[in-house]
Amino acid sequence: MFEGKKKVWIAGANGGLGLALTEHILAQGHLVTVSTRRTSQALLQLQASHSTQMTCVLGDLCQQRSNTQSQLMAIFEQYGLPDWTINAAGLLHAPQSKQSPKAKMPEKRLSQITESFLVDNIHANAYTNVAIAQLLDTLYKRKDPFHFLCLSAMVGSISDNDSGGWYSYRMSKAALNMFVKTLSIEWQRRFPQACIAAIHPGTTNTSLSAPFQHNINSDKLYSPQLSAERIYRVLSTLTPADTGQFFHWDGTTLPW
């Protein structure tokens, strides 16, 4: 049934875009492993309707005491290594909580930067990709072809920054972009058939962008389904020659 189809690992599959990516890639007939720190009714329903095609791992790969890595490796041993890996996890703002009585929003001024929110952004938007790559690095042989796609953002482009603000988010995405570029150089030597790239999906109508949508023209706010289709289209065309690139959702390259 799945002959010729890809084996895909989607991290952060419970977010709005991650869920849409999971649904779209399943619809193409691929075998999908998803990992998420928290599940949801929507994700459970998707798994129930694709029980022979989808496997779900609940846990945090970044936590050293977590058994998430061993669960993933057991799945890959059973079904085969992922041809494609996508990290859809990310952070832009944080709601009120017991630990944080005030919602945390992107900073407009220098005076608003806090160590905790900056660290949270770096962890969510940059380090999660490092943790995923470190696992992938142990799985493949030199001649294995595979893709690793990281969701970045144009606000992480230093040369594109002409409005300022959003300090922690910008810095964390710039850190991600540097990681992608640096890792691509190492992996060109170790895995010459691999491709690691970053992609800007555009502003997508999810909870991540919800507080900021009033400033966005309706034709620049995309549904999760449309963004998922565009990401899939770019991912499907990647080759080893594209490694280390930063892509717009339309497939054009963006400046670092």
- Under the CATH scheme, which architecture would be assigned? 3-Layer(aba) Sandwich
Give me the oligomer status: single chain
- Report the mean per-residue pLDDT as an integer: 90
Q: What's the SSE pattern?
A: EHEHEHEHEHEHE
Number of helices: 6
InterPro entries: Fungal_SecMetab_SDRs (IPR051468), NAD(P)-bd_dom_sf (IPR036291), SDR_fam (IPR002347)
Protein name: SDR family NAD(P)-dependent oxidoreductase
Pfam family, one: adh_short
Organism: Photobacterium pectinilyticum
Folded structure, characterized:
The chain has helices at residues 16-27, 41-49, 68-79, 115-139, 167-190, 224-237, and strands at residues 7-11, 31-36, 54-58, 84-87, 146-151, 194-200, 246-248. With 256 residues, the chain is an alpha/beta fold. The protein has a single domain, classed as Rossmann fold (3-Layer(aba) Sandwich). Helix 1 (16-27) links the parallel strand 1 (7-11) and strand 2. Helix 1 (16-27) crosses helix 6 and helix 4 (115-139) packs parallel to helix 5 (167-190). The radius of gyration is 18 Å and the shape is globular.
